[in-house]
Amino acid sequence: MPRSDKFQRYAVTIAAVAMLSAPVTGLAQPAPQQGAAPAAGAPQGDPAAFRKAQEEFNKTPNTPGDGPYPAMIETDPSLPNHVIYRPANLAPFEGGKLAVLAWGNGGCADDGTAHRLHLAEIASYGYIVIAPGPWRSGPGATAPRAAQAAQAGGGLPPAATTTADVKAGLEWAIAQNSVAGSKFHGKIATKLLAVAGHSCGGLQAIELAADPRIKAVVINNSGVFNTGQPIPGVSVTKDMLKKFHTPVVYILGGPTDIAWANGSDDYEKIQSVPAMLASLPVGHGGTFSKPMGGAVAHVAIDWLEWQLRGDKTAARTFLGENCRLCSGTEWTLKRKGF
């Protein structure tokens, strides 16, 4: 489904957004590093400003997305500590038409609703999206995030979720296709599998991208650290970029994005598969708190529709001299291998 008009609208109006990624309530923030992004207008290292930004975003209603299949958010006792985004009406997906996206949260946080507007938007285009962590944010939260103490000596907090947690969501969705009595029985497109993630969650996506079943990869505001690995519990290296087996897109927030250097270096180092680097100058927080996930959500959707479903209209967002991201917007695009 073409969305060229939305690129024009969002590109002109977008501004820096509230940070939705790392657990921020009561957390003293370290110096700028990937995995802990500042809230819009909040001074770096100001826990009160972070807390206020999160509280304000929690008041924002959940949205069904603007795709053809209005989405809902739910949890399932058969998949504890995960949140599921999917079309409210599953009838159109009989015969295995519901594509799957496994998502890694910013900050590797255990909050499956930290990116709820973005993920519901994707779901509204015919996807089941699974994020690790309880329902901690926004209306309907069942496990609000508790205050977290500052780390001794500063630095980023340990990852609260793992790549295995992200993969568990993928495995659960595939299995549901064969579970008698499941609402998803016979509706999952078990060959249309994708992985994506924000910041620290993008590192989880990079690691999971090596799974031969994955057919599409989206890395948001992330990249393997060029020096060291400051996030306890995360061990992702540049060598993992060699394990990509499908085209990949990095969506960055411009030079002010704290993942800019890492993500740009990843792009340059990727040689085995076609790759793109799409950038919008909004910083590390992306457009996750914008209605319907903002401009970034629509770029991600077009990538998924192109890579998973072969949608040539969606491909026009990225291909050709006059592609939708190539002119007339604030986006910049680098491409190789296409």
Q: What can you see in these coordinates?
A:
The chain has one domain (4-336): Alpha/Beta hydrolase fold, catalytic domain (Rossmann fold), CATH 3.40.50. Helices cover 25% and strands 17% of the residues. The protein has 8 helices and 9 strands. Strands 1-2-4-3-5-6-7-8-9 form a 9-stranded mixed sheet, sandwiched between helices. Strand 5 (188-198), helix 5 (200-208) and strand 6 (216-220) form a beta-alpha-beta unit. Helix 1 (4-13) packs antiparallel against helix 7 and helix 3 packs parallel to helix 7. The longest helix has 16 residues, at 294-309. The two termini are 22 Å apart. Mean pLDDT is 85; it is low at 1-45.
Can you tag this structure with a few keywords?
338 residues; alpha/beta; Rossmann fold; 9 strands; disordered N terminus
Summarize the structure.
By secondary structure, the chain is α/β, with parallel strands linked by helices.
Please state the average pLDDT score: 85
How much of the residues is beta strand, in percent?
A: 15-25%
- How much is the radius of gyration in Å? 18 Å
Largest β sheet strand count, sense and barrel closure: 9 strands, mixed
Structural class comes to alpha/beta
Please write the CATH class name: Alpha Beta
